[in-house]
Write a structure and sequence with these properties.
Blueprint (H helix, E strand, L loop, with lengths): L3 E4 L3 E7 L15 E7 L1 H11 L5 E3 L2 E2 L2 H10 L8 E2 L5 E6 L5 E5 L9 H5 L4 H4 L3 E5 L5 H4 L2 H10 L3 E5 L9 H12 L3 E5 H8 L4 H10 L6 E5 L5 E4 L5 E4 L12 H14 L4 H16 L18
Parallel strand pairs: 1-4, 1-9, 2-7, 5-6, 9-10, 10-11, 11-12
Antiparallel strand pairs: 2-3, 7-8, 12-13, 13-14
């Protein structure tokens, strides 16, 4: 099995709800559900790998408070080398709504302090050589994002395939953010975007055509994946052909982190040598399992990791 790693945002999520309609100012609203859990794009992907029994490396940082220590404890040995910054840990409060959508309130916290030096203090290029690196949370971690070119250079030297999922920019897809994302994509081997991100970034309404436009700015042999929620996922691989995977029909319980779970399962399948079509199916299956269970479960991967625990 090829090595797996993730670089990006790990923070605390406090999920509460459902809420409808939105309460008036100055009132108190009683909700049916609350859950304190690990969050962030990198955190969600790593949790999925853990649950699936897949070995991996994760580079992130934490704040110097009890939440930071709690996050480190959630990942055990995987977080032994995470740097601790002086800021408090980033916290997202997610308010869910009856239609499955949610609203997030997020503090800046420790994420803007995450640097390339922090990532390199955790990751070993020789250990990860020939593997896959999931790069996520780009717009929430600006310090490391400004050094992405050096990170891509490092990945190229070790033949590490970078899979990019920037997430939605906090200030929207401005022209500057689109230009930046296209530059990062030009150096990535895999793009992992949801349908709205794909069509918005490409400026094309059709998801398949948008995927083709994004692939055009990437290197030869790149793969573009479009995550389409209940419609499953599509991918355009090195041969330029579009393939699709349908999502199982499930009763949705919690969609938070669904795309991150897909990323984890999809890359784990590729790392095991599965075809693009089979990997796409694994991603949709595992993500569907995750969003339809509480407590969240992920199912099982068909084979154990070849790397030592």
């Amino acid at each position: 099995m090829r090595p797996l790693a993730v670089i990006g945002n790990v923070n605390v999520d406090l999920i509460m709800g459902p809420v409808s309609p939105w309460p008036q100012s100055g009132t108190e609203f009683i909700v049916e559900h609350d859950e304190l859990r690990v969050g962030g794009a990198a955190g969600n992907a790593a949790l999925a790998w853990q649950a699936l029994g897949v070995d991996f490396d994760i580079a992130s940082n934490i704040g110097s408070d009890q939440f930071g220590m709690w996050l480190r404890g959630a990942f055990g040995r995987y977080a032994d080398k995470w740097p601790v910054c002086r800021e408090s840990t980033t916290v997202s409060v997610g308010i869910t709504h009856p239609d499955g959508e949610r609203t997030f309130f997020t503090t800046l916290g420790h994420l803007p302090r995450f640097s390339l030096a922090d990532a390199f203090s955790v990751l070993d290029g020789k250990r990860l050589a020939g593997g896959f690196l999931l790069l996520c949370g780009s717009f929430l971690t600006p310090l490391i994002a400004q050094d992405y070119d050096a990170l891509f250079d490092w990945a190229d030297r070790h033949d590490i395939s970078v899979a990019l999922d920037t997430g939605w920019p906090t200030d929207g897809w401005t022209d500057a953010n689109k230009k930046l994302a296209r530059h990062w994509l030009s150096r990535s081997r895999i793009a992992l975007f949801n349908e709205i991100e794909t069509t918005t970034l490409a400026g094309v309404g059709d998801a398949a055509e948008a995927a083709r436009a994004i692939r055009a700015v990437m290197a030869e042999g790149a793969t573009v994946v479009v995550k389409r929620g209940p419609e499953g996922a599509q991918a355009m691989g090195p041969d330029g052909k579009l393939i699709s995977a349908a999502a199982p029909k499930v009763e949705v319980v919690d969609t938070i982190g669904a795309g991150d779970v897909f990323n984890a399962a999809f890359l784990a399948a590729l790392a095991r040598g599965k075809s693009l079509a089979a990997s796409l199916s694994d991603g949709t299956r595992v993500a569907s399992q995750a969003i339809s269970t509480s407590p969240r479960s992920y199912g099982e991967m068909p084979a154990a990791s070849a790397r030592s625990a």
